[in-house]
Every structure is written in structure tokens, then in C-alpha cells.
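> forwarded from #structure-qc
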């Protein structure tokens, strides 16, 4: 996840607004979907309810949101297969960016 954060952490708004490769959604929407998926995995690992991650007006906050939900996932001490799923989600998101 840190590799993805380093990849996008310096992006400005026009880069976030650009359409992701091979799709019809913005890069920001794609990363927010990843943030939500990682948050869902963290909730599942904690045994708690899933909650919607707010889609903030400023896309520049997305790397921070990703850091927070990733830290939540790690803190929940998920089983290896859940970490593997998170890693696969990150890879699937990085490829079209």
C-alpha cells in the first residue's frame, strides 16, 4: 500500500480527475473504491459493522484516507488470506492508474 501512496501522494487535482486507464471512472473514484474496500476488510477483521468512507471534496486527501484504513486493517491483525486480498486490491487499483 505504501508504494501506491508514494505513487499518488504528490498528485494535484487534474491528475486525480483524469480517467483511469481502460475505464470510465476517474482515478480519484478508483482510489476511493480501494479505500472503501480496505475499510470493509478492516471492519470484517475487527468483527464490526462496515461503514461508508466519506468521499471528501478534496481528492488530495485520498492518500491519507488510504493510510488510515490500511493502518486499521493491520491493527486488526487479519488472517493472511485477508491481507492477500487487500494486496490484490491494491495491485488491481495501481495497474490502471
Amino acid at each position: 500500500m505504501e508504494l501506491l501512496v508514494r505513487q499518488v501522494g504528490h498528485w494535484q487535482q487534474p491528475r486525480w480527475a483524469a480517467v483511469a486507464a481502460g475505464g470510465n471512472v476517474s482515478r480519484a473514484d478508483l482510489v476511493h473504491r480501494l479505500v472503501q474496500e480496505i475499510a470493509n476488510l478492516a471492519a470484517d477483521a475487527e468483527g464490526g459493522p462496515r461503514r461508508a468512507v466519506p468521499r471528501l471534496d478534496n481528492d488530495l486527501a485520498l492518500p491519507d484516507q488510504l493510510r488510515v484504513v490500511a493502518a486499521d486493517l493491520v491493527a486488526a491483525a487479519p488472517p493472511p488470506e485477508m491481507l492477500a486480498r487487500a494486496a490484490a486490491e491494491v495491485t488491481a487499483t495501481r495497474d490502471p492508474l
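QC bot note: Residues 2-94 form one domain. The chain has a mean pLDDT of 95.
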